[in-house]
Write a structure and sequence with these properties.
Largest interface: A-B, 40 and 41 residues
Number of helices of chain A: 8
Strand content of chain A: under 5%
Largest sheet of chain B: none
Number of helices of chain B: 10
Distance between the termini of chain B: 54 Å
CATH class of chain B: Mainly Alpha
Number of strands of chain B: 0
Shape of chain A: globular
Strand content of chain B: under 5%
Radius of gyration of chain B: 21 Å
Oligomer: heterodimer
Structural class of chain B: mainly alpha
Helix content of chain B: over 70%
CATH superfamily of chain B: MetI-like
Order of helices and strands of chain B: HHHHHHHHHH
Distance between the termini of chain A: 52 Å
Number of strands of chain A: 0
CATH architecture of chain A: Orthogonal Bundle
Order of helices and strands of chain A: HHHHHHHH
Shape of chain B: flat
Number of domains of chain B: 1
CATH topology of chain B: MetI-like fold
Largest sheet of chain A: none
Radius of gyration of chain A: 20 Å
């Protein structure tokens, strides 16, 4: 492998990182929305979201990416594959994040909610000032864990022609006729990205434990 | 064209896909579990260099995406003179990759067991191996039921990656039917529903097993 191949690899790694990053940001926020809608127990919406979470949990990322990719043009949307990739990954991670947020929401201490009510706080204010700051700390380890799972399933987007860190190995091998070095190098870059998330998760974990005590 | 008719006309293709996915899932699930039991057995005991290396290897495996590991086996190994066909690469990848995850689940359960138990077993003259297989392992397995369920669902989902290396699984069946008619909705909805039902069956079975274990007093939580 030459220097220019490393450059190509790093460029592809960046593609993986930014596509995953956007999906993570959208997924964390939308997950919270889904969790709150489910907690609100609005008749039809609540059941619909429960089915969505259960269905997405069982759908492989490859199948989901492929599905959105072939369904978009037939619905009349000519979209960029990168948009499809972000949509698929966001749909996937939102479902898992919603479960994490829901866990934090349902296990929130009742005493604090009663105290907030007694102090005359409105629901919105309680949510913003009391619940969210604590829920963020307690859910962070789970959310970061889900982030690393998402990055691990991100190679599925290589299926639809996006040159991510997995697909780029084919590109380099097509020139050098030696697929082993680029695959190993890509593996190393994945380990660096995911290893960073795992370390972040440990830090988040110790912070969450401190809050619990 | 009618969606039901489209599925019915290609039911053989879907059947083949489902069968391949299920074979991959069941065989790999069982073998990954057995591999994990052996791996945690090797980790049992005082810390030394070989054990450190195993732990290190397991951690590395868990930081690798499944597809890149599969690429390594399928595209990378022929360069060092080891050519695997699609099925053996698929089985090998699923078993070792998920074996590492199962091993991690068991290892976490091992650390939650009271230390006095192993000491008591030693005092009764148990040797390391029979203590592990008869006393520790059954408890570790019983304690990690729900985690096994999650991991099995991940294993099922990872089988879909094998469609990329041209194995005729459920996802490949959907995309083959889609390519035939250029109507994507029915085949994909059908296949996603099948994945969903397999997941629900797995979860129900595990829940039943754990309830049965509780009734017989094998676990008490």
């Amino acid at each position: 492998m030459e220097d220019s191949d490393w450059f190509t690899l790093l460029h592809a790694a960046w593609t993986t990182v930014w596509i995953s990053g956007i999906s993570i940001i959208l997924g964390v926020a939308l997950g919270l929305v889904v969790a709150m809608l489910r907690a609100a127990k609005i008749p039809v919406v609540s059941q619909f979201l429960a089915v969505y979470v259960s269905l997405i949990r069982a759908t492989p990322m490859v199948t989901l990416v492929l599905f959105l990719f072939v369904i978009a043009p037939s619905m009349g949307w000519e979209v960029d594959p990168r948009v499809v990739a972000i949509a698929a990954m966001t749909l996937n991670t939102t479902a898992f994040n919603a479960e994490i947020w829901r866990g934090a929401l349902t296990s929130f201490s009742r005493e604090q909610l009663e105290a907030a009510k007694a102090a005359g706080m409105t629901t919105g204010l309680t949510l913003r000032r009391i619940m969210l700051p604590q829920m963020m700390t307690t859910s962070l380890p789970g959310l970061v864990n889900e982030m690393s799972l998402l990055v691990k399933s991100s190679p599925a987007i290589a299926m639809i022609g996006i040159v991510d860190l997995t697909r780029v190995t084919n590109r380099i091998a097509a020139v050098t006729y030696d697929p082993l070095p680029p695959i190993l190098a890509a593996g190393l870059l994945y380990i660096l990205i995911i290893g960073g998330l795992v370390r972040f998760q440990r830090i988040a974990d110790s912070r969450a434990k401190r809050l619990a005590m | 064209m009618n969606g039901f008719k489209m599925i019915w006309d290609n039911i053989g293709l879907f059947g083949e896909g489902l069968q391949n996915t299920l074979v991959l899932f069941c065989v790999s699930g069982v073998l990954a579990f057995i591999l994990a039991c052996f791996l945690t057995f090797l980790l049992e005991g005082a810390e030394n260099i070989p054990r450190k290396l195993i732990r290190w290897g397991l951690d590395l495996m868990r930081m690798l995406p499944f597809l890149i590991f599969l690429y390594l086996l399928y595209y990378g190994l022929p360069n060092v003179g080891l050519r695997l066909d699609v099925w053996s690469a698929g089985f090998f990848a699923l078993i070792t990759y998920h074996g590492a995850y199962f091993a991690e689940i068991l290892r976490a359960a091992r650390t939650s067991l009271p230390a006095g138990q192993a000491e008591a077993a030693y005092a009764h003259g148990f040797i390391n191996s029979s203590m592990y297989w008869r006393i520790l392992l059954p408890q570790m397995v019983m304690r990690s039921g729900p985690l096994f369920g999650n991991q099995l669902v991940c294993l099922l989902k990872d089988t879909a990656f094998l469609s990329i290396i041209t194995l005729m699984d459920l996802t490949a069946a959907a995309s083959a039917v889609q390519a035939k008619y250029f109507v994507p909705l029915p085949p994909f909805i059908f296949v996603i529903a099948l994945y969903w039902s397999v997941t629900l069956v797995v979860e129900t079975l595990l829940r039943r097993l754990s309830r049965r274990a509780q009734k017989r007093g094998l676990v008490h939580e």
